[in-house]
Fold this sequence. Notes:
CATH topology of the largest domain: Isopropylmalate Dehydrogenase
Distance between the termini: 17 Å
Strand content: 15-25%
Order of helices and strands: EHEHHEHHEHEEEHEHEHEHEEHHH
Number of domains: 2
Number of strands: 12
Amino acid sequence: MNLKIALLPGDGIGPEIVGEAVKALDAVAAQYGHTFTYEKALVGACAIDVTGDPYPAETHEVCEAADAVLFGAIGDPKYDNNPAAKVRPEQGLLRMRKSLGLYANLRPLAVFDSLAHRSPLKTEIVKGADFLCVRELTGGMYFGRPQGRSEDGNTAYDTCVYTRAEVERILHLAFRLAQGRRRHLTVVDKANVIATSRLWRQIAKEMAPQYPDVELEFMFVDNAAMQIIQRPTYFDVIVTENLFGDILTDEASVISGSLGMLPSASVGSKVALFEPIHGSYPQAAGKNIANPMATILSAAMLLEHVGLKTEGTAIRSAVNRAIEAGVVTEDLAAKGEKAFSTTEVGDFIAKNIA
């Protein structure tokens, strides 16, 4: 297969971790006879520094022309610590999602048995946890209008809006994903209080007969937040709106014991984007200590998305070999054991792709 991949390394550790994922992709291409070509583009703080825009038109063109996008991270302390900044890296991320039609974020949470002891939860609670969060990305409060503050600075308001079309497309995706897993779908809402949640629940009930093989249930978001911690092995596929999804996926991410292990995908009407869930971690930038595994696993998701399931599995197996061999960065290294560098971990994984 010939595959054109847009590379958006971004800020902080982004260039380092994306570089290691490219090593894994190149190893796959060599092993399985594919041709992967890459085109880099700017996004985030580095794009602001060069162009004044966190998501320049040139970057959008590169993404639209690609078969898939591999994204690192955005964010820089000089913007995070400046509340007066009118242009921020995160604005580029929101605009990228909207302009590329990326309406669904997929975050798998699978606990590696050999890392279960690193979770802040008891090993017996998290061992075997394997669920997928499906978060709506382009609607809800983050994009709702009107939005603003009163002139006297004493009142602020946001608007949460969802249309039937937006809800139907994300639910169709979630139902189909559940069909390919354990056929259990949990719709998370706050239908006892919020009107948009009642619309979500109504539409999910209407759609359920189209997917008779999927068990559908509803759960209020406050209860879901508790159950994810108390019974993470209970869930299969969770689907929810933008704000709830933002919070719940971050909560779920700590279950694995390291943010450096969790990949994600954002899919929609155009090209799909793949990225680790952790941030730009500017304190580690340039030190060769960041964990590249989440980005490498995001590359595995990319391959699976374009139909290269065997190749994606090969990357996952190589990551697992690295963990079992103790070839891990400092966030995963056992006490008293050697911590390997970002590049050493990436090299080991690339060499073990078969």
